[in-house]
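Example record used in the benchmark description.
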Amino acid sequence: MKILTVVGARPQFIKAAPVSRALRAEGLDEFLVHTGQHYDANMSQIFFDELAIPRPDVNLGVGSGSHGRQTGEMLIRLEEVMMAEKPDAVLVYGDTNSTIAAALAAVKLHIPIAHVEAGLRSFNREMPEEHNRVLTDHCADWLFCPTQTAVKNLHQENITAGVHLTGDVMYDAALMFGQKARQQSDVLARLGLTPEDFVLATIHRPHNTDFPDRLQGILDAFTRLDEPVILPIHPRTRKKIADLGLDVAALAARGVRIIAPVGYLDMLMLEQNARLILTDSGGIQKEAYFFQKPCITLRHDTEWWETLDAGWNVLVGWDEEKILHHARTLTPAGPQPPLFGDGHAAMKIAEILSH
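Model output (structure tokens):
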């Protein structure tokens, strides 16, 4: 069986690491396509190197652009690759423009689609990702759900055929590479950090970065926290901070250390050693949970409602005072429910596809 896998963004590289390994162990023939959606070396190549993901068979080099232009260009080029390679199935991850472009190209060519991370819903229709994930689910033939809530979401949309509860492949990756990070990453020494004595933050979603008052409020909250804040910065966010007229050195003097994007192993090391994580990223919300770190989500919605119910995550949006309040008071108690499977999601996916 020949599977054409499409990736394009940092979270997808992480998810592909255990799945590609499992597919090949199961004897499946994988053809890996990188759309080039994330093309910066710190956002792309370093992940292939660190995670030992097979070198892409094709890199489409699409790059950045408006949602319509980027998705359209991917659709055109992916259709050409699929027609040339004639795969038995197309495998996609998550909810990016690469995901929906691949799903649309495949469904129009009558190629079965496997969707890893199916069934997620933020119920925020202002997010492009929400439309991407819903449309992909309705195109898919295999729907690999990370949680029981995801299965329930699909059932509520009358999607029941081909639905499989596998667990979360990012949990597989965290288990696989978390220990490797502890052995190999020197990021704490490089940054002069003491475990449990800093806060880790990420900001990249347009609803935070594209509104100056929101971005300003979040950064102001960071400067008022009791510990230093480490902020690996997405290139878009760095530009938006500059547009606000804020000086990186001035922010550093107030406790917010802006650093370049870091590789996966360094990020896992930072996550495992932070006291607290603040983020608008769906993936980092999960990784916070994996490593038993309280998480403050800089959004009013999430794909991971289970982490809220478990008491390890709270939604604050961009409200400065809420950020400060929860940063000082969020102290989850009790054992964590095993929300994301047993760490063998990738193997289950490969076994299902091979039969």
